[in-house]
Each structure stands twice: as structure tokens, then as C-alpha cells.
Amino acid sequence: MVLSIGPKLAPALAPLTPGARVKLITETFPDLSGVQAAIGGGPALVHAGKLMQWKDVVQVRHPRTAIGWNDDFILLVVVDGRQVDLSIGMTLPELADYMLKLGCQEAMNFDGGGSATLWAFGAVKNSPSEGQERPACNALVVLKKNAGANPKTAGP
Prior knowledge:
The protein is 6% helix and 17% strand. The protein is mainly β. The chain has a domain at 41-132. Strand 1 (44-47) and strand 2 form a beta hairpin. It starts with 43 loop residues before the first strand and ends in a 32-residue tail after the last strand.
């Protein structure tokens, strides 16, 4: 397990010394006990086929990534940005509207900015705003299930 404390919170904590004991509580709210799969991100863009509304949303265009779904499809979307000759990005409301127009009943924003990258079939498929992939500590990985595999014995 990795403990990461951001620069705003670190000054409020007692200094840690080598060998110090730290108690980590991994409870979640809501309780995710028994959950087999979960996706973290935010904010939600579309819920039950309706655009989400946010108070005080900043209307700034950035590179974005999102996931959306309906009864038939899962859609992965990456929006380039910060590249005047290619794309200026999208605001959250613009991305939400786009996901709804794609037919999503549900959609969620993921990380954006310099980490907005779609990698598929061995190559980057978009134009990341920093000119290349940015190292990231997490990602959504989608794999095609082997049609002939026994679900009780097949790996993830």
C-alpha cells in the first residue's frame, strides 16, 4: 500500500520518522464491501439519460477523458486540447452534452489535461497536449474476453 499526502495536507500532520507506525483505514463511503468492479472519476456527466448540473462549474476548455454507457455499448472518449492548430479541448458541460449525443445513459469524466491519452493496439491514438504520453499512476484497461474461454477458469 502506498500512502501519499499532498502538499496542502502535509503541514497539518505530525512529522513521520522512519519506523513510525501509521494506521491506514481503508473504509469507503459508500461502503464498497463485496463490490467486484468499480470505476473512480468525476464528476458524473450524464445520469439516467439526463445531463448533470453543477454549481459554480468553471467553463474552461481542457483535454478530457470520459467513459459512457448504455444498454448496448461502453464508449471511451478522449478529447485533445491546448493545441491551437488541433483542438482547444472541451468544458465539462460540452463533454456532458457530447456524451449524451453519443447515446450514453450514464457518463463520467476521468482525468484530463496532460494525462488525456488513449492507447490502443500498441500505440497512442490521440495527440496528448504535452506532445507525448505522461506517466500516470492509474489507468482504465479494457480487454476483449476470449470467446472460447471458460469463465470459471479464465483469468481476468
